[in-house]
Amino acid sequence: MPVKDDFAHPFELASIKPRGKPFNFIITKHTVRPMFSFLHTLFTDVVARFGITLPSLEITDNLTKKDAAEKLMGVLSMMSARFHDAPHARTSFSPPPMFREWWNNARCNFDMVTTLLDFAYCMAIPNPRVLNKGRGNATYGEIQYPLLAHILSVLKMSSSDVFLDMGSGIGQVVLYVAATTDVRKAYGIEKDKLPATLGFKQKEYFDGIMEYFEKQQKEAHLIHESFLEVIVEPIIYEATVIFINNRKFNAELSLALNQTLMKCKSGTRIVTSKKLVERTETMKKRDKKQGEITLDDVSECVEFPKSGKVGEEKMVSWTANGCAFYLTTMK
Ligand SMILES: C[S@@+](CC[C@H](N)C(=O)[O-])C[C@H]1O[C@@H](n2cnc3c(N)ncnc32)[C@H](O)[C@@H]1O
Prior knowledge:
By secondary structure, the protein is α/β, with parallel strands linked by helices. It has helices spanning about 30-50, 55-60, 65-85, 95-105, 110-125, 145-155, 170-180, 195-210, 235-240, 250-260, 280-290, 310; strands at about 10-15, 25-30, 160-165, 185-190, 220-225, 240-245, 270, 300-305, 325-330. The protein has twelve helices and nine strands. Helix 1 (about 30-50) packs parallel to helix 3 and helix 5 (about 110-125) crosses helix 8 (about 195-210). S-adenosylmethionine binds near residues 140, 142, 168 and 228. It is an enzyme of class 2 (transferase). Belongs to the class I-like SAM-binding methyltransferase superfamily. DOT1 family. It is found in: Nucleus. Its main location: nucleus.
């Protein structure tokens, strides 16, 4: 089908597995490039077994978006037709090793989840700069995956845990947790409309591509709401592990957040990029005299060590200088 200048063309890529789910997406001028790079990253070897060669990325870069979209649709139609027939063909298709690794493991490893999240991000958010318009409490920033993986390896969450990201932005932390850990549920609460809406879109692409690769994930919910609202209190109470990238929250919001965290169950573990309670020497002396009281009822903060593995990585999107995270447990 010829592509118009301003196009939005729904496409269904057939599954290569007998009862597999297809991947549905929309080809627009924004999704042509991420779709091409995705095919190059994951499908070059697979389609070669079907005698299909993907056009090089440089070629597609030199084409107009409209021509590139036409080329993409041509390749995808060919792939879909061959994939559709593959399970029924008499000569069985012998998959390359990468194919087996990607399709046959039920859960995502680090490379898989980051590849699929990056893909969903590029498909849903053509211009990430729009996210960086806010200041103060609305400052947008993303924790980088190597640091997140490190934090999760320390937390060792199980099926009795419920994870909550308070201020979840576009929700990638929630999706990562749902795809790689054994938590019962993962929630994200985001107040700002733009990241929340882009997050819903990203989740849609992520769920679709996870299904295509037959990857299992845990229940995940992204909620567009302020975490200070009464309506989300049951979720805060249900959570056993809370993640808050609160480094840029101002004093007023930090205070309100601390009051909200009083609704947590005892034993809830809270990971933050700014200490929840900076205990001064006077406070420490008072603690000793009077015993601990109310909100300050958190066990001593544990700073995540900058382990060799994550130490050299850029850890959050807004600074290359690194950013410590702290773990506190509600008493
Ligand atoms: C630094 S971003 C963190 C995004 C994501 N959690 C991460 O670490 O990659 C902080 C987010 O908190 C959100 N936020 C600030 N106040 C909030 C509130 N009262 N309720 C929900 N979200 C809030 C901001 O809009 C922003 O998207």
